[in-house]
């Protein structure tokens, strides 16, 4: 039963990583920029989730509101931060993104306080026994259902819609896509909205599981997400998803079998470094 329980916990954590890493992967695929400020959007989603739930009593409203607002903020970040720098060296955009992330932590501290926020009445506290001896909270079930639904939806859109086909064409060859009538700017704004909304959803889920949102909440997940997209193969959506789930499972098992001398984050980074030493190009090529 321990093995099954650890697998379930690992998949839940991996699903959260996947929601965060997807936005980074999409942005890198389109612009070849490491979108470090994505971590700030993850934290913003967590804060919106707590504030709206406490104010309205509706967690569903909080989730939808967080995804919508964070998606819009993501589009604004493209317009304000990245678009003016597209013709400059990628390092400049990376430095600007890091600066925005650091500044956002201070803004969260100013507006919401240094000690974080919690739910007045944590939602979805109930549990069900999915297998004999393995209870699972409603919150964790929601994380899995939400992640599967969102990721399946984006996968379906990429294959079966004009927007999805246009996005893939833009990733492969932006100039050719533009000459074929694809509005590249619309694709970029849409991609930032979707990726940012997913990060906002992940922030809400983490705030729900931990019953806490704090200004630095996005730091460690963002570092892991950056490592995940490198491990998966820069720009590869499938690679990022595989790497996310693998990391979640390794962390889950590692806390039991290696927790006496390594903490959870150390286990994750040790695994990522080991894999990249063996396969530095990542698990999958971009696609």
From TrEMBL:
Keywords: Amino-acid transport, Cell membrane, Membrane, Transmembrane, Transmembrane helix, Transport. GO terms for cellular component: plasma membrane. GO terms for biological process: amino acid transport. Belongs to the binding-protein-dependent transport system permease family. LivHM subfamily. It comes from Puniceispirillum marinum (strain IMCC1322). The chain crosses the membrane at residues 12-31, 36-53, 59-81, 93-117, 137-159, 192-213, 225-249, 261-278. This is Branched-chain amino acid permease protein. GO terms for molecular function: transmembrane transporter activity.
